[in-house]
Amino acid sequence: MPLPFHFRPAALAARLSLCLLLCAAQRLHAADSDTAADSTVIARVGDTEVTAGEIRGAVQNLDANTQAAATHDPAALGQVVRLILAQRLVLKEALAKKWDQNPLVTAALTRLRDNAIAQTYLQSVSTPPDTYPSDAEVQAAYDANKGKLLVPRQYDLAQIYIKNPKGSAPAAAAKAQVKLDAVRKQLAKHNADFAAIATAESDDASTTAKGGDLGWLASNRIQPEIISQLGSLAKGSVTPPVRLDDGWHILKVLDIKEPYTPTLEEIRTQMVQSMRTQQARANSQQYLAKLLQDNPVQIDELTLAKVLKQP
Asked: Which residues make beta-bridge pairs with 97?
């Protein structure tokens, strides 16, 4: 799906592959939630199935940008499912050939087991008590960071997208230009219905059924070429066609939210989670520091310097 905000789809497959490799370890941290995961089967190949809960778990383990891509782009989400199924098929074939008995594999599994035990134990001794943070601590953190909590201007946008990637063949570019000119003529008519035109003409299949509606986007997530057009527009205005690498974007401003600082109650849940995460990280560092203090480490520095050198 073409989106008027920053996203690099080239990195999606690599990020998803890494996520699926790490999912086994992540499940240890989410065992309780897995038991309640939605068991609805979304996809299958042969006797191998993928449930809705497994898909959610895979997406939750991605970084924020890739999560956004998978959430907004059905093709990206489909890639998540295909990679899960591919991993299952590889596993099935490997087990059939007793690959799990390979010495290199057993050594790797031992390392994974040891890491999982150490990491989950460290997590257990680092988790702050349920009483942290107190209401007073949350209030103090809010007051101290209030200046950094400003939410930038947000736009509720709809778009008409005309596909015309840079470098397209002349015939394809000419066809896109004809379509763009036709759309502009329709929009220039009195009482033109932007949503109806988007549904009929936009090349963005994921939003045509919604009249091109993209939803709310923060200004700092919108492409500079587009935000420069939006800055002076009022609610209900339509931008001129904006050329991006993938084609032409025509945006309608459905609504605008001016910058604001959220109240403590609006962000209390996020603040508590962030404070607990930070405290857990600090507890972990303190625990490891004390562990090393109580168990002095001796290192042969001369030999260590040669470990990674080529023979």
From this structure: none
The CA-based angle 217-203-253, given to 5 degrees, is 30
Cis peptide before 296 (omega within 30 of 0): no
pLDDT score at 275 = 97
Bridging pattern class, strands 213-218 and 154-163: antiparallel
Instruction: Output the six-digit token pair for 20.
Output: 């699926």
Give the H/E segment covering residue 155: strand 154-163
pTM above 0.70, yes or no: no
Query: Which residues of the chain, if any, have pLDDT below 70?
Result: 1-37, 310-311
Q: What is the rounded distance in angstroms from the CA atom of residue 8 to the CA atom of residue 30?
A: 29
Determine the Cα angle at 114 with ends 110 and 116, to 5°: 115
CA distances from 193 to 109, 213, 286 (A): 60, 13, 61
Residue-level pLDDT at 148: 92
Q: What is the Cα 84 distance to its own chain's centre?
A: 17
Across the chain, how many H-helices and E-strands are there?
12, 6
DSSP tag of 23: H
Euclidean distance between CA atoms 29 and 247, whole angstroms: 43
**Torsion over CA of 154, 158, 162 and 164, rounded to 10 degrees?**
20
**Looking only at Cα atoms, what is the longest distance across the chain?**
81
